[in-house]
Amino acid sequence: MKYTVFSAMLLGPRTKQEDCIFDGIDLYQADRLTQKKIIDTDLLVLGVCDGMGGHDHGEAASRFVCSQIKETFDRTMFSAEKIETRLTEIQDLTAEHLSANCGTTVAGLMIMDGQTIGFNAGDSRVYKISTSKMDYISHDHSLVQGLVDKSFIQKDSATSHPLKNVIDFGIGPIFNDVWKNFNIHIFEETISKDDGYLLCSDGVNDLMNETEIHERLMPSPIENGDILLQALQKKGLKDNTSFIILQIH
CA 52 to CA 100: how far, in whole Å? Predict the structure, then answer.
């Protein structure tokens, strides 16, 4: 199957790029990136990680997890159960390879044989893009999302909530004590020709809601990736900002 992938990264106001992305072929952790690729493959794997921990630790955490996705997510593990098992194994490996006070979010997609499996931990997101709308199909592991789930606050007020960046769950040593209290969010669906997806760190959705992002991307998400990037810069970046747009042909 043939895919077009547009990837973008901006450092924003931070001194380090703690995001890391995998576009199906290459791993990136750049201060600035715009990259478009056409990929012909029977298995496509994409990932976005947003590290935390300060100094070099967040940078190391996101790169480690993104590298594990690049190197180990193959045809043999194309199932929700195997993805969850592998991410649990990666969590165990972080104790050996990373500092104790760091971690990372992760959002990813695997596509094979007309099927999509998506997954996330933390607040990096996956959206499904159609002509008429964008659907938020991942699920944040955050304090504010928990308040929304319990109907304590409305979804529309979550973006402006003062505690919106408090993360409950992710991958890395910092999450060891809570790992067994949460589940990796996994979703599965059948793909159709011309389907599209957006994977992003919270540097994107902290600045724009689904409607605003959709307006920038339509009618041609890949071609309008630069327009979205420029619109985010115009709003004033508050964090490292990274996203991947996928179009299926």
Answer: 11
